Fold this sequence. Notes:
Elements: H1 3-31, H2 39-59, H3 63-86, H4 94-110, H5 114-129, H6 131-139, H7 143-162, H8 176-200, H9 206-231, H10 236-261, H11 266-291, H12 310-333, H13 336-349, H14 351-361, H15 364-367, H16 374-399, H17 402-424
Helix pairs in contact: 1-2, 1-4, 1-5, 2-3, 2-4, 3-4, 4-5, 7-8, 8-9, 8-12, 9-10, 9-16, 10-11, 10-14, 10-17, 11-16, 11-17, 12-13, 12-14, 13-14, 13-16, 14-16, 16-17
Amino acid sequence: MSEELLVFRNFGIALFIGALVGIEREKRKEREVGGLGGLRTFILVALGGGASAFLSQSLQSGWVFVAGLVSLGMLLAAAHHAEVTIDKTAVGATTEVAAVVVFLLGGAAVLGHVNVAVAVAIATSAVLALKKTLHDAVGHVDLDDFVSGLKLLFASFIVLPLLPNQTVDPLGSLNPYKLWLLVVLISALSLAGYVAVRWLGPRRGAAVTGLAGGLVSSTAVTLSFARRSRAEPGGDSALAMGVLLAWAVMFARVLVMVAFVNAAMAPQLASSMAIMGSFTALMAILAWRSSVGAEASDTPEVKVKNPFSLVSATKFGLFFAVILVVVALAKRFLAEGALLVVAAVAGSTDVDAITLSMANMATAANLAESDVTPEFATRAIVIACISNTVVKAGIVAALGSRPFAKRILLSTGAIGLGALIAIFVGL
């Protein structure tokens, strides 16, 4: 493409950027009274930014572009003042800011940064068009949730880079950087599930509550549904479906964690998790078929609190470190089968720590010092998962109604069969 044609193309893209944002502003003017600028205005603003950038490049003087930007700012300030004078409620400046963004994007497009300019223009249009959606989303977030998000960012981008990325113990099992990175991963997954529960609503339905709540804590879902089954009999099938879906999410969650730590091991573990997850999903479907016609009001509210705090993250990190040390000691001084016992015991309380520990030991970097192969690590993780499932079934048996407990215990037996298949056939 010749240089002249390239310039025409870039100006065409600048025009497209202005039209993209301008159409959204034009539609907004149809819905709301007043407002600055529409389709034509934003096209001219984008072309003005492109022309200013073109002249600045041709004259080798950035002041031309700066002068154009300042002129636009003065025009927008005067127009906004006039609008506020007419309508005292018109205090927002979204359109004015959007015009400045379009001016800059028009200049970027003409200077050749086409892909970035178009991508940012699309994002700008989406932000403008999704005004209500964004405001509603913020409405679901309270101050404590926001502070928790900030703490997660603090743990990820301030604490993590300060930690040493090397082992610090004689057993060679504790790497502070990797350990905290995995703590952040678990916290992020749990926080995502918590946000899903908050946005979707804790009483949206047993299926939705089970799926979203399973990301936060499948144990919390199990405990809540078990208590509800005894308090209000009649919805056992729907409650069982929710519990089983939460358990199915646990298997998917385990696979995501392993893929993050040891991507080479993930395909092998996927078959095992798929077998167990399929048995769980099958039992959930059977429960759903029995629950058809149940009222939505029968769905219990799962009380989940924000799962992230620096204290809870630190506690999990310490627990994870203890599991790493125990596994390292068992590997060094005990028979191979002892690791499977450790996996079963650790999995009964928390499946995340033992999963991450075994996946890390089976990485290519550690195979030279460890005899924990991916096959053995997969078997240990499967045992940890079934141990965790059995404990949750025990919670149901102790706290749930008899029909609810019977259905869950039968499902646990089916999941255990899937685990046996995964261990002896799928590996």
